[in-house]
C-alpha cells in the first residue's frame, strides 16, 4: 500500500473514532474518575474507570476537543478495556514513545486502530492532544493505587 493510501486510511480511522466515539459517556458512581485538560488548545477529557482485581473491567470518557484528542480517547478505551492495569500502563508508555517518534520495533503490543495516530508525531503541537486521555488514565490509576 502506498504512503498516500495509508495516510488516507489513517485519517479515515481517526475521523471514524472522532465522529463515532467508542465508550463515550460516564460510568457508575463507584468508578475512578479523573479530568484533565490541555489549556493550550482547550481539549478537556474526563476518564472513568472501573478496576477490579487489577483489571480494567470498564472504561469510558467524556469531554470535548479536537478530532485527535477525542479519537485518541476512543481508541484508548478500546485498547485497555479488559486488560490488566499493568498492561494498560504499558500501552500508555508505548503510546507516549510512539508520539515521541521513538523506534518501537522491540515492543510486542497489538496497536489496532491506535496505529492511525502515528502521524501525529510529525506535529509536536498535537502530541498533547493525542496523549491527553492516556495521561488522565495513568494518573487515575496511580491515584487509585495510593
From TrEMBL:
SUPFAM superfamilies, A to Z: SufE/NifU (SSF82649)
One example of a Gene Ontology biological process annotation: iron-sulfur cluster assembly
Molecular-function annotations in GO: iron ion binding; iron-sulfur cluster binding
NIF system FeS cluster assembly NifU N-terminal domain mapped to chain residues: 10-129
InterPro entries recorded: NIF_FeS_clus_asmbl_NifU_N
Record CDD domains: IscU_like (cd06664)
Family per similarity comment: Belongs to the NifU family.
Name assigned to this protein: Nitrogen fixation protein NifU
Lineage: Bacteria, Bacillati, Bacillota, Bacilli, Bacillales
Amino acid at each position: 500500500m502506498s504512503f498516500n493510501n495509508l495516510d488516507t486510511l489513517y485519517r479515515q480511522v481517526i475521523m471514524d473514532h472522532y465522529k463515532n466515539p467508542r465508550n463515550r459517556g460516564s460510568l457508575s458512581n463507584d468508578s475512578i474518575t479523573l479530568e484533565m485538560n490541555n489549556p493550550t488548545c482547550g481539549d478537556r477529557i474526563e476518564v472513568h474507570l472501573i478496576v477490579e482485581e487489577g483489571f480494567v473491567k470498564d472504561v469510558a470518557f467524556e469531554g470535548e476537543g479536537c478530532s485527535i484528542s477525542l479519537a485518541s480517547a476512543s481508541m484508548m478505551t478500546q485498547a485497555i478495556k479488559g486488560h490488566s492495569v499493568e498492561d494498560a500502563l504499558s500501552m500508555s508508555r508505548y503510546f507516549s514513545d510512539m508520539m515521541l517518534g521513538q523506534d518501537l520495533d522491540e515492543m510486542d503490543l497489538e496497536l489496532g486502530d491506535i496505529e492511525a495516530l502515528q502521524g501525529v508525531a510529525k506535529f509536536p503541537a498535537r502530541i498533547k492532544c493525542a496523549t491527553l486521555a492516556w495521561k488522565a488514565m495513568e494518573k487515575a490509576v496511580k491515584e487509585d493505587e495510593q
